Design the sequence.
């Protein structure tokens, strides 16, 4: 066998190995099982449970979600927008003590509106909005599902067909939804991102601290300690 033939065979074998390596890397890439599990966290477990333990089916579903919504660019909120959303949430939270159903309904609307303002599908497209949120905010999106389910129970006449959510369920729905609301509002700060210093903002520290206080998960005293007037 001539030297030229040997060199040609070596080149061909090397090319085959390189292609195989690329294919293997792609199979473990953005849609690979380990990557999906890390990206989706609790949503990965929910998908597996929804498919009866069929991991491959769950990963196909999640991979499709990434393809459909992974390229979505979240829009930052203007300071005035953010303040309006935070003020409305504070008002809803304070209303909970006297009117928990109305407060929860407002919380449901607020999450939908702030998500829409950030560039996610409109709240009128609830399923698509949740799907997109599950890709970008998988650790808190289930709180939105919870508050939406509870809020829609009475709006859809569910009280005639089953046991109405109690005060504790209303309260937990509000708290879980707040986690996603906070994440959307905080990450939506205009000008926030990779250019912020490690210690946070270097200007307007007092304003920032007040905003952080307003958007914290601490609820009004009555929210935790007193029974509501409505169950």
Sequence:
């Amino acid at each position: 066998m001539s030297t030229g033939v040997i060199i040609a065979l070596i080149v061909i074998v090397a090319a085959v190995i390189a292609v195989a390596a690329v294919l293997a890397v792609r199979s473990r890439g953005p849609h690979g099982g380990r990557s999906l599990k890390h990206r989706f966290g609790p949503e990965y477990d929910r998908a597996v449970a929804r498919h009866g333990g069929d991991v491959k089916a769950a990963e196909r579903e999640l991979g499709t979600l990434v393809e459909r919504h992974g390229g979505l660019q979240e829009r930052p909120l203007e300071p005035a927008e953010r303040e309006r959303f935070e003020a409305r949430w504070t008002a809803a939270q304070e209303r909970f003590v006297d009117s928990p159903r109305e407060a929860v309904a407002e919380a449901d609307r607020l999450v939908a509106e702030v998500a829409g303002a950030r560039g996610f599908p409109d709240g009128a497209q609830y399923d698509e909005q949740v799907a997109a949120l599950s890709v970008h905010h998988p650790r808190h999106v289930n709180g939105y599902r919870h508050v939406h389910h509870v809020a829609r129970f009475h709006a859809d006449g569910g009280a005639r067909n089953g046991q109405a959510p109690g005060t504790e369920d209303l309260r937990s729905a509000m708290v879980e939804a707040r986690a996603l609301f906070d994440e959307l509002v905080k990450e939506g700060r205009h000008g926030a991102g990779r250019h912020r210093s490690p210690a946070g903002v270097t200007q307007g520290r007092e304003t920032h601290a007040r905003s952080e206080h307003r958007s914290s998960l601490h609820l009004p005293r009555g929210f935790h300690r007193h029974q509501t007037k409505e169950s």
Observations:
- The two ends are 89 Å apart (CA to CA).
